[in-house]
Design goal:
alpha/beta; 2 domains; 11% strand; 6-stranded mixed beta sheet; 10 helices; Nucleotidyltransferase, domain 5
Length: 288
């Protein structure tokens, strides 16, 4: 259960793997952060991952300063199919991947990054070709193929269990073109690791950690209640912004005990999408 009498502030983050700053004027496929709590109900736009993280830290600190609690959802996988962590790091602990990526990924203030090199280096640790795939044609190599059909013999499952239950969710191995959540994961997990290092025991990640904490991070899938989002989108609103805004409202509308229970569901090695299987309840929490 969450702490009695504490009002949660909900943050929902639509991440981006852009390799340059997003345009000054808000556009789709960029970073949007929704906040729903007693101090604010707003959506902000961020041109770089560094700017987004700085914004989140500032807002998290403000919530903690007034004695509140943070629930923050990010729209990329928090882990990989079973066996990947052990193959890469020697342990099944999903946070070992976070730490490994935090050391390997270079991602500067202008979004320039080395994710292709890192994916290629990870593939080199597996037999055959793969599991990661997808990159610009000029960057493709024998170790990092441009097409998924060129992979073979790497030994990893294509999808986590949660993705098999939600087939429209893209697999984490896909790094390029439409729905390439894999690149968001490579560039997102190091930022989450930075939050873990900053806040220490005050932060917990569900469903991997059970302990009570002032900040709780969870994986989300904004399209989970896509029909409700479209019905509640404002005229001219960028779909990414509408998704995080409405999803934050839905989670905020749950009772504290119910929200806490929902966040704890799932696989402790592969991770989970918060709210999966409870779509009707989330939609009902939006009210009329």
């Amino acid at each position: 259960m969450g702490r009695t009498g504490v009002t949660d502030t909900i943050f929902m983050v639509d991440w981006s793997a852009r390799s340059a700053p997003s345009p000054a004027r808000p556009v789709k496929d960029a970073i949007f952060v929704a906040e729903h709590g007693p101090e604010a109900e707003a959506v902000s736009y961020h041109r770089t991952r560094g700017a987004a993280l700085a914004h989140l830290v500032g807002r998290f600190d403000a919530v903690l300063e007034r004695g509140g609690r943070v629930i923050a959802g990010f729209d990329f996988p928090f882990a990989y199919p079973a066996g990947f962590a052990a193959a890469l790091t020697g342990t099944e602990d999903p946070f070992a991947i976070w730490r490994w990526l935090a050391e390997a990924i270079a991602d500067d203030g202008q979004n320039a990054n080395n994710r292709w090199d890192v994916a290629e280096a990870m593939n080199a640790r597996f037999p055959g070709v793969g599991p990661f795939w997808g990159c610009p044609a000029a960057r493709a190599s024998a170790a990092l193929p441009a097409r998924g059909s060129l992979r073979h013999g790497h030994g990893m499952e294509e999808r986590r269990r949660v993705e098999r239950l939600l087939p429209r969710a893209q697999p984490c191995w896909k790094l390029f073109t439409t729905g390439s959540v894999g690149s968001q994961t490579l560039l997102g997990l190091p930022r989450l690791q930075a939050l873990r290092e900053r806040y220490g025991a005050r932060l917990a990640v569900r469903p991997f950690e059970d302990r009570e904490a002032d900040i709780v991070l969870a994986e989300v899938y904004p399209s989970l209640i896509d029909g409700a989002v479209k019905a509640r989108a404002w005229p001219g609103e960028i779909p990414d912004a509408a998704q995080v805004r409405v999803l934050a409202q839905a989670f905020a509308g749950l009772g504290p005990g119910r929200l806490d229970a929902m966040l704890r569901e799932g696989d402790r090695e592969e991770g989970w999408i918060a709210g999966l299987g409870h779509e009707a309840e989330l939609i009902a929490a939006l009210g009329d």
